[in-house]
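Researcher: Next sequence.
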Amino acid sequence: MQKYFILWVSAFALLVGGCATKHYSISTPKMIVIKSPKLKYADMGYLRYEGDAVEMELFTAGVAVEKISIDKQVCVSAGCMSEEAFVSEYLYKDYPRDTMRRVLQGEPIFDGNGTSESCGGVKIQNIRNDEMDIVYRRSSSETFFKDRLNGLMIKISEIRDGNETK
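Model: Next structure:
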């Protein structure tokens, strides 16, 4: 009898505390395109934020195919790693460790170096050297990151209602 009591208590503790998921205050559907050596994706996804924690869940035909969670570590379906290891493995080794987090949040990268503002409040960063050629545009409806030298592209757009007209 005591064995069953311990089993029930363990199951209850696991349900209440052990499997608790992070709750994000902002969760928005987006059209997401990612082209990198390790990720190739173009479909709908969700971006979720809570402070510095970011989660991107990618769907294909309505089925979740990948989740990238960035908090103290970066977790993907292959496992968890440091931000430095993720950026080196999935993006490019010489990017700052918080590059993916900042792109997902639409924040300046590389300490804001090379930033200008164009009409309509679109912020553009151009970062060029022998190892990278980055164009990074941020507006209220779209985030676009492209490194021509390293073959990387991330585009995150608002999902438009099919009935909208310009």
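Model: The chain has one domain: 22-158. Confidence is low (pLDDT under 50) at residues 1-20.
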